[in-house]
Amino acid sequence: MTNCPECDASVEVGAMIAGEIFPCRDCGTELEVIGTAPMSIERAPKEAEDWGE
Amino acid sequence: MSSAGRLGLFYTILRPEEKWLLAAASARGIPLEPMHDEGVLFPIGGAPPPVDLVLNRSVSHVRGLYALRCWEGAGVKTVNSADVTERAGDKVLGSLALARAGIPTPRTIVALTEDAALRALDEIGYPAVLKPPIGSWGRLIARVRDREEAEQILEHKSALSSPTQSIFYVQEHVPKPQRDLRILVVGDEPIAGMVRTSSEWRTNAARGATTEALPLSRELSDLATRAARAVGGGVLAVDVMEGPNGYVVHEVNPTPEFKALQGTTSGVDIADRILAYALEVARA
Asked: Which of A6, A52, B182, B255 lies at 20 to 30 Å from B225 by C-alpha?
């Protein structure tokens, strides 16, 4: 269990792994799993100029 | 461990495509190690890397390219290779490769300054399309209708701090139906295609284009295969427009998304085909 960096709500990442994007259930902010041991989340990254296919 | 050795999936965001690749590996009983691109270190000349082949799915062209170079430098096999990724991920290098192979492409001029870009636009004729060399999803692409608009757009682009925004890739605006065609080539085989239709001039699925299955004619299959080979081959999405004089290839994408394509495709498990190709490369 950790907390949303935007609204501080408790967030459970369950079986997710680093790089998964999900919305905070309370405030809807897009969050990214950074690590699972220890559990760490951040706001999801914004598209960078070189992102693409 | 499989006979193909240890496989890694290098990624930025775990999208459906990456989850399908992991599931395909799991279904084949092959370990595929997820490697989040934010956490990997590359000690130069250090300990051997923990994998024998890396399947690159990073959404960052620059990050992916440096990572591929580091792995290849350490003897790790890659899909796609750094050379292919560099060539196909940069519109200038991609166009050079396509032109060298005689693939029909839209008329394109590269300019290195704002003034030269204006001259290039005048020469191409209006409307024209101005694209950054790197990037996709239709981002920062402009359709330029006349010289006045060109001057305004170029001024805005020059204000951006990125050096690659100051390299101007000027392309003819191909008069085409409100759609384009995408064909995914894996190895030497076109495995699926789709038509992307949009009410706006950019027909990227990422911009909300609607998609439907594209039956692959021999002509399209040959063109896509030649285009993929032109940039070095691998897992490549070839984008084709229907111009007044026939098909033109405007892009070859080295880390293709395939969620929309899989949605229009039946009978082909795209993730499994990509994985099978990676296994072939690993065993070669």
From this structure: A52
Any idea what the Cα angle at residue B42 is, between residues B38 and B47, rounded to 5°? 135
* E-state strands within chain B: 7-11, 32-36, 53-57, 77-79, 108-111, 128-131, 142-144, 168-172, 179-187, 189-197, 210-213, 234-243, 246-253
Number of domains in chain B: 3
Please check whether residue B69 lies inside any domain of the structure. yes
**pLDDT per position as a tens digit, A1-53:** 899 999 999 998 888 899 999 999 999 999 999 988 888 899 998 888 888 89
Strands B53-57 and B128-131, bridge-based pairing: unpaired
Q: Which of residues 241-280 of B touch A (CB under 8 A)?
A: 253-257
Tokens standing for B261?
């394509």
Residue B186 lies in a domain: yes
Is residue B206's pLDDT more than 70?
A: no
CB B142 within 8 A of CB B200: no
How many other CB atoms are there within 10 angstroms of residue A49's CB atom?
A: 18
* pTM reported for the whole predicted model: 0.92
CA distances to A12, B95, B130, B140, B226 from B171, in Å: 48, 11, 6, 14, 21
B181 and B255 together in one domain:
yes
Residues of chain A contacting residue B13, judged by C-beta atoms under 8 Å apart: 19-21, 32, 45
Q: Which residue of B has its CA nearest to A32?
A: B13
CATH classification for the domain delimited by A2-43, as one of 1.25.40.10, 2.20.28.160, 3.50.50.60, 3.40.50.700: 2.20.28.160
Residue closest to B233 by CA, chosen among B58, B49, B87: B87
Closest C-alpha to B15, from A52, A35, A9, A5: A52
Q: What is the pLDDT of residue B6?
A: 94
